[in-house]
Predict the 3D structure of the following.
Amino acid sequence: MRGAYCILMSLEEKARIRIGALGTFDFGPGVYAYVGSALSGIEGRVGRHRRRAKKPRWHIDYLLAKANVMSVISIPTDRKSIECAVARSLISCEGVTVPVPGFGSSDCSCVAHLVYLGDSEVEWAIEELAMRISMMPDVYSEGA
């Protein structure tokens, strides 16, 4: 399936992580959400992200060396712009912060494609993200 995806992950303890050319950053424990796109196939891309043994290619690969994937929300689409629309929607959520400006957004003008949800309950975060995505007009509108 082609489209965008949102990975919800948990970091159990504080970690100092080098994120490729972006540099080294401190990540607090808690829940994070990352938005990406895979117009060649979500299953393959997310499967690669979930593997521990791999050469890091994307920013998310560095974080996932320490964090645990809790859930993945898939958004079927042929439009790469949906990735940015979802990231902007998540950034606008109350209480959400951007831990690393530029994370996952080196090929667009977004602030970042990674958000920090703090010590939110994972189940709450899954429901909130799924609801926000389902209500986005550019995700499911015809001809958009």
Q: What stands out?
A: Residues 3-140 form one domain. The chain has one domain: 3-140.
